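Reposting from the mailing list since nobody answered there.

I have sequence plus structure tokens for a pair of proteins and want to know whether others read the tokens the same way I do. The first protein:
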Amino acid sequence: MESYKLELHPVRGQAHVCLFRNVTNAPELRQRLINQDATMACALVNAELVINPFHVMLAANRAAHDEKHNQLKTHNINSEIVFDFSSTIHISQSLKRFGIEDTTTDIIAVKLGGTSEEAIAFMKDNIKGDVVALDQLDQIRDLKRIQKYYQTGDVKEDPVKLMQLVAGAMALKGL
């Protein structure tokens, strides 16, 4: 797990980002999210659609900004983080694409606020899988699907160029 300071929103606390592999309870987690279980206090993102930690922080910062200005489009900041991965304004489509499915085995968990120890304890208590280093995203990410969802065209498997295009698409959402 890695923790990052939300530079523009220091009052919100840090963003704690953890990559889980071989997750066995995705159906239960998904059902809790659908039921809007308030005890599920973290965002769960399909890791196949995450380029790198910067990608996560773009979504987390935008969600923190929207929360600060009372502009959340979803029911809480955790679902807002998942929604903010998308370049479209369609909430249900965004949550389906970037959220977890019953068959998801690789999950990025994002928890805002609290200490690193509290965050990792919460995540490990709720997500049944192996905690691995975030650099394993290189092995997990599906560049073809990312290109398709962000409509970037063919960037010849170049994650740096793709991240630039994705950041632009995320920033222009809603304009």
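The second protein, same order (residues first, tokens after):
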Amino acid sequence: MKDQSNSIWQHLAYLEQKINQQYALIQELNEKMDTLIEQQQGSKAMAETIEYNFEQLKIETLEGTLNIGLTPQNDLPFEQLDLPEESPESSFTPMEQQIYNQLMPFLRKELPEVLNQFAQDYDIEIDQQQKHVLYQDIKNQLPQRIKEHTSQIQQNGRVIIEREQIPALIQHIQKEITQGIDLFLNQLKENEEDES
């Protein structure tokens, strides 16, 4: 009988040891989980949801550069025209920065809709990666376009524009972007038809 009670006490001691080990492990995991939650909350990134529904055509490749209102004024090779040596944004005047800041919502929100509408009009399908490439191309050209427009309204090195005229200039650049997309997708459609 003594052996049995000894055996029971040993078994209970063993179970208590296992319970303590499990409790310590749970505490450790809770601490790690709390740390991970804190790290995750500290590094939240905002992501806008953009939905596109193209189901009619499939484009195997979409290549090229979308040029917005680019008209070469000298005989430079095309590759040199859209590769500025320094970032134009870094040398923006306050007015140019204001124009840039007001155009960015157009690029983020309205540009996808414009792109979808033209793609639908031309009956072409453009996937997310192609849209991203177009967006980046336009975004990269935007500072140079702003600089070019403001340089055209300079007199003796000073920009002559009233604050009330800024919205008209922004609308003009938005129109150039829209026309550039229209021309690009039209060319893409013509190339697609030529290959068929």
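Reply #1 (J.P.):
I read it the same way you do. Helices lie at 2-42, 78-81, 94-122, 128-152, 166-195.
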